[in-house]
Amino acid sequence: MSGRPLALVVEDSADQTALLRRYLDREGFDVFAAADAEAAIAAFSDIDPVVAVLDLLLPGISGQECAGLVRERFPDCFLVISSVLDATDYPPADAALPKPIVGADMHEILRRVQR
């Protein structure tokens, strides 16, 4: 372990995952990335994320359902929803990060995360 806080990213776009990984690394986080909710859920026993960034439009289990499961399993995790959908359609979360993602927006959100 590196001693850096862990961020969970659930995103089915490889380009978006790479972008989020770069932003989160720059902000001092290690990243566990999952291409779908099922892969994220399968890793729950091995991870303890401080922040989770979830896409809503995922194959299989929806991002909305995944957000609820992350909340249940990691109640102190700072939950960020990132989607192309209208932010008014996002499930309850600690922050909204509408796509396209901008580094400055991610920076502002991560300033609020307790590490």
What do you see in this structure?
The protein is an alpha/beta fold and 115 residues long. It has one domain (6-110): Response regulator (Rossmann fold). It is 33% helix and 19% strand. The protein contains four helices and five strands. The protein has helices at residues 14-26, 37-42, 63-73, 103-110; strands at residues 6-10, 30-34, 51-55, 78-82, 95-96. It has a five-stranded parallel sheet, with helices on both faces. The longest helix has 13 residues, at 14-26. The chain starts with 5 loop residues before the first strand and ends in a 5-residue tail after the last helix. 30% of the residues are buried. The mean pLDDT is 95.
Shape: globular
Count the beta strands: 5
Largest sheet: 5 strands, parallel
Count of discrete structural domains:
1
Order of SSEs:
EHEHEHEEH
CATH topology: Rossmann fold
Strand-residue proportion: 15-25%
Helices, by number, come to 4
Structural class: alpha/beta
- The CATH architecture can be given as 3-Layer(aba) Sandwich
Q: What is the arithmetic mean of pLDDT?
A: 95
CATH homologous superfamily heading: Response regulator
Percentage of residues assigned to helices: 25-40%
Q: What is the structure about, briefly put?
A:
The protein is α/β, with parallel strands linked by helices. 33% of the residues lie in helices and 19% in strands.
